Amino acid sequence: MNRPPVPRPGPAGVPRPGPSGPARPGPARPGPAAPSAPSTAPAIPPSDAATWGRVDDHGTVYVRTSTGERAVGQWPGADPAEALALYARRFDGLAVEVDLLERRIRGGSVPIDEARAAVAKVRQQVADAQAVGDLESLVARLDALEPVIEEQREQRKAVRTAKLAEARAEKETIVAEAERLSTSNEWRAGADQMRDLLDRWKALPRLEKGLDDTLWRRFSSARTVYTRRRKQHYAEQHEQRMGAAQVKARLATEAEELATSTDWGPTAARFRDLMRQWKSAGPAPRPEEEALWARFRGAQDTFFSARDAENARTDAEYAVNADTKRALLVEAEALLPVRDPAAARAALRDIADRWEAAGKVPREQMKELDGRLRAVEDAVRDADDDRWRRSNPEARARAEAAVAQLEASLQKLRAEAAAAQAAGNTRKATEAEQAIAARESWLVEAQKARTDFS
Known about the structure:
With about 450 residues, the protein is mainly alpha-helical. It has five domains: about 35-145, no CATH class; about 155-240; about 250-315, no CATH class; about 335-390; about 395-450. Helix content is about 75%, strand content about 5%. It has 13 helices and three strands. It has helices spanning about 50, 80-105, 110-125, 135-145, 145-180, 185-205, 210-260, 265-280, 285-335, 340-360, 365-390, 395-425, 425-450, and strands spanning about 55, 60-65, 70-75. It has a three-stranded antiparallel β-sheet with strand order 1-2-3. Helix 2 runs antiparallel to helix 3 (about 110-125), helix 3 runs antiparallel to helix 5 (about 145-180) and helix 12 runs antiparallel to helix 13 (about 425-450). The radius of gyration is 65 Å and the shape is elongated.
């Protein structure tokens, strides 16, 4: 049997006509495809299998290629059309697999290394395929995926480079914030911030090893420093609070001992001092603080409640005393104005004795009542002083002697003035007149003083 010539593809993928007649239409080989457009090259239907294969008299099935025929199988005694149809269906399966691979790769859903491995695997399957069809067109479609894969590799490399640059900037920001926190005293929020920084770090991709390791060491060191300082702070705080608890326990015990005291003034002052010590001691651990404060406050309340009750009883008693003293003030103020200082002084002495016997008055009324009595006492004392001044013999004698001396001095000066005028001594006469004027004014004052003793 003569072997028909293998049709060679012409322009646009159309097989050239062979010597046996016009060429049958076959599948066109795809050229370089657009990066994102999936291939739509149709598979060779089984009815066209004779274009790409033949079966010899011994049942051997051949596939035609551009380099000649290649045996792909043997089906002795079978109908050649059935044999070709079987091997054409195998080709259709390969074409479907190539088509699916094209769609996945051009869609960008396959990792680069996986895509290259898949293309190599399918290419090997096509090269060794026991199938009848345009196998070289499948190889061409697989070859057309190489530039697509390379372009995707460059795109993904650029995207990864950009992401790594963003990750580097973010990690440097995280490190800077962690180092700031490591020297701060943000003990409450700082721990949460450190945990948040660690979560952000874990969510970022790794950088090149040297840089990533350097940044991680800085970040880890800052976290360690902060954690150590935070633990030390809380340890010191706990120690301080335990010390404060001991101080406050002592203060609470002393307050409880003072709670039943009736020495109101000194005990109240001591309670104020205890409160100052309580505030300066600082906080104790919360449970101890609350329990100790309940004891301290309870002792305070017990003492001051008892003092307030006693003050209330005292105020009721003092109110009666105040009424008594108001009645005494009516008697005392009736002595004014003072006409008889001796009688007024005697009456006031009796009122003062009864005033002292009346006892204490409410604090808020004390100033008013004492002030009114003091005003009467001042008036009586002033009247008595005036009476004594008027009746003092020595003072009267001094006043009369002063008047007599001034009168004698005036008489002498007037004589000197008259003599100077008669002699025409104007200067001496003027001096004498001035001296007379001065002594006359002194005489008036001396006469008034003498009158006070009349």
